Structure formats: C-alpha cells, structure tokens
Amino acid sequence: MIDMNDLVIRGYLIRLVGEDGLAMIEKMPEGEVTDEQIAQATGILLNIVRRTLFILNENKLAICRRERDASSGWLTYLWTLDMSDIEKQLVKEKKRLIKNLKVRKEFEESNVFYICPEGCIRMDFKQAADAVFMCPDCGEDMIHEDNSPFIQLIKERIKNLESR
To answer: Which of 84, 101, 114, 164 is buried most, with the most CB atoms less than 10 Å from its CB?
Structure first.
C-alpha cells in the first residue's frame, strides 16, 4: 500500500484526479467493486467516480474487469485500485516536468521581454515592436524586463528535480 500522507504522492494524485478524486481514492472499498458501490461508499457523485476511475485506469493505477450478466446481457465493470505502479508514474511525471522546464528556460534565454508597468501584459521583443512598445490594454509605455531572476529560478528547479 502507498503512503497517502506523502506530499509528492498526494500532489500528483490531486493534479491527476482533483480533490474529489483523491477523496474517492482514500475512501474506496477494498477488492473489486462497481462504480455505483464506490459512489455509495464514498459519497462522491457517480460521474466524478467514473471520471476518476477512467483517469486512474489510463495511468495504470486502477484495474477494470468486465463481467457480462448471462440473463440480461448487461456488462458490469468491476474496479480495483492498483497503486503499485505509482513510483513509475512519478518518475515519468518528473521527466516530463524537467523537459518542460528546459524548454521554458531555453525560451526565456532566447528572447527579450517587455512588460506593462501596470501589469497588464508581457510581450517578447517582436510583439512589443509590433505594438510600438505601448500596452494594448492600457496604453502605457512598455518597459524592458530583466528575466534573469526567473531564468535562475528555472535552473534551480531543474537542478533540484534532477538531484532527486
């Protein structure tokens, strides 16, 4: 079983399925259960339960088994949580985050930015030049932005993630 008090795991699950989804996971009955049984046991709306189960299944954190009723022909879906793959999912998520941060760092390093002093908008040089260095929202003169502190923050975040 996973440690549901682990902040990294909780953060990942909240990002994946939201607060209601996390509440469903925490209260979900043991063993194979239907989505209706989960909704009844957890007090979570059925459509949220179904959405959460499908997201968990797509991310290999829940198993679904179909059973056909011989007399009616109806299909019943039986669900089981399987969090044994969560460490792999967290590693995959970390790699995705590092990749995105590196792309953003490269973008920030490759461009010059201008901002509205009123905080309306941020533009790269081409956009600012096209707007004649005037804020399109309030008409103020755009000023050059030193984004080196932001770049440094991205670098530190990448270093921190890569060292874990």
So the answer is: 114
In the chain, the amino acid numbered 32 is E
The predicted model scores a pTM of: 0.71
Distance of alpha carbon 76 from alpha carbon 104, whole angstroms: 45
Q: Where are the alpha helices (DSSP H) in 28-72?
A: 35-42, 46-58
Alpha-carbon distance of 41 to 36, in angstroms, equals: 9
10 Å CB burial of residue 5 (0-12, 13-18, 19+) is exposed
- CA pair distance 86, 130, nearest whole angstrom: 47
Candidates 80, 91, 70, 60; CA nearest to 162 is 91
Pick the closest to residue 48 from 82, 68, 18 (CA basis): 18
The long-range contacts involving 120-127, CB below 8 angstroms and separated by at least 24 positions, are: none
Contact 75, 67 (CB under 8 A): yes
Cα separation, 104 vs 146, whole angstroms: 16
pLDDT tens-digit readout, 2-23: 778 888 899 999 999 999 999 9
